[in-house]
Amino acid sequence: MKKQKSANTNKKSAGQSKAGKTEHDANDVRIDKWLWAARFCKTRAIARELVQSGKVQYNKQRCKPSKVVELDAIIQVPAGFDQKTVVVKDVIGQRRSAQLAQLLYEETSESLALREKNAAARKLSIFHSPRPDGRPDKKQRRQIIQFKHQ
């Protein structure tokens, strides 16, 4: 005689999908999609690569591109030579205008001060490393080669 499985063994608990992972609300947004919607990245693929490579931190920790963004979370995003630290103020999964995208986050005062300090340091370093007026002539090139081989 065969044993019959009880009816409860095949049922998943409420709020779980087939894979056993919890389902998310319709208004939940992944971090890669939020970065794209907030205009930190030009494409979602670039946003996904930034998160996967560890250049984006969510609440001071590395995360996966599928991480769900929550309000008042702290996200660190690379911006050129600097790192922006922003606080999430709104969550939206659609890319809107730049004016609306700026309303999704607020940059911390520490981040602003650090970026301004780094910009000033970069400007000063340009003045300390002057560029020559033109290309070196034949005599100057010979002197450079001779200097390098000493």
* Beta-strand content estimate: 5-15%
Characterize the overall form: elongated
Q: In the CATH hierarchy, what is the class of the domain at 31-129?
A: Alpha Beta
CATH-assigned homologous superfamily of the domain at 31-129: RNA-binding S4 domain
End-to-end gap: 93 Å
Low-confidence stretches: 9-15
Task: Assign the structural class, choosing from mainly alpha, mainly beta, alpha/beta, alpha+beta, or little secondary structure.
Answer: alpha+beta
Question: In what order do the strands lie side by side in the largest sheet?
Answer: 2-1-3-4-5
Element-level helix/strand string = HHEEEEHEHH
CATH topology of the domain at 31-129: Structural Genomics Hypothetical 15.5 Kd Protein In mrcA-pckA Intergenic Region, Chain A
Q: How many helical stretches?
A: 5
Largest sheet: 5 strands, antiparallel
Beta-strand segment tally: 5
Helix content: 25-40%
Family: Belongs to the HSP15 family.
Region (Disordered): 1-25, 127-150
Organism: Glaciecola nitratireducens (strain JCM 12485 / KCTC 12276 / FR1064)
Biased composition (Polar residues): 1-16
Structure write-up:
By secondary structure, this protein is of the alpha+beta class. The chain has a domain at 31-129: RNA-binding S4 domain (Structural Genomics Hypothetical 15.5 Kd Protein In mrcA-pckA Intergenic Region, Chain A). The protein has helices at residues 31-37, 44-52, 98-101, 109-128, 138-148, and strands spanning 57-58, 61-62, 74-79, 82-88, 105-107. Helix 1 crosses helix 2 (44-52). Keywords: DNA-binding, RNA-binding. This is Heat shock protein 15. Residues 1-25, 127-150 are annotated as: Disordered. Residues 29-92 form the RNA-binding S4 domain.
